[in-house]
């Protein structure tokens, strides 16, 4: 079975330390081997060699939440500049309100 990757934003990171997640946010800062995205708050992402982020574009990160709440990137997908971030946050919130549909507590 494929690994479950719940959609999260900054407020949910604490609950997913050590787990693989999906985070969609706007790239607000690039700093060599790391970046900051805005996903309901600032999230520091630790880039891999294949990460090619574009400032001010939306990016979906699949990665592992570290102890300091940064996210180590396994995969990054550029979503361009035309994203409805309110809709993204609504999907994240719906996922967690109805988590039994998307993942179980022992997968968290």
Describe the structure.
With 108 residues, this protein is of the alpha/beta class. It has two helices and six strands. It has helices at 85-97, 99-102; strands spanning 7-8, 20-31, 34-38, 42-46, 58-65, 71-80. Strands 2-3-4-6-5 form a five-stranded mixed beta barrel. β5 and β6 form a beta hairpin. The radius of gyration is 13 Å and the shape is globular.
State the order of secondary-structure elements, H for helix, E for strand: EEEEEEHH
Task: Give the overall shape, derived from the CA principal axes.
Answer: globular
Instruction: Give the low-pLDDT segments.
Output: none
How many strands appear in the DSSP assignment? Answer: 6
- Secondary structural class: alpha/beta
Keywords:
108 residues; alpha/beta; 5-stranded mixed β-barrel; 2 helices; 6 strands
Question: What order do the helices and strands come in, and which of them pair?
Answer:
Blueprint: E1 7-8, E2 20-31, E3 34-38, E4 42-46, E5 58-65, E6 71-80, H1 85-97, H2 99-102
Parallel strand pairs: 1-2, 4-6
Antiparallel strand pairs: 2-3, 2-5, 3-4, 5-6
């Amino acid at each position: 079975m494929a690994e479950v990757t719940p959609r999260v934003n900054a407020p949910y990171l604490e609950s997913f330390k050590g787990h693989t997640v999906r985070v969609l946010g706007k790239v607000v800062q690039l700093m060599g081997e790391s970046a900051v995205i805005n996903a309901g708050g600032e999230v520091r992402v630790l880039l891999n060699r294949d990460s090619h982020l574009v400032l001010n574009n939306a990016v979906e990160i699949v990665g592992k939440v570290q102890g300091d709440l940064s996210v180590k990137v396994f995969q990054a997908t550029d979503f361009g500049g035309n994203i409805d971030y309110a809709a993204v946050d609504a999907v994240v919130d719906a996922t967690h309100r109805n988590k039994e549909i998307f993942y179980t507590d022992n997968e968290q």
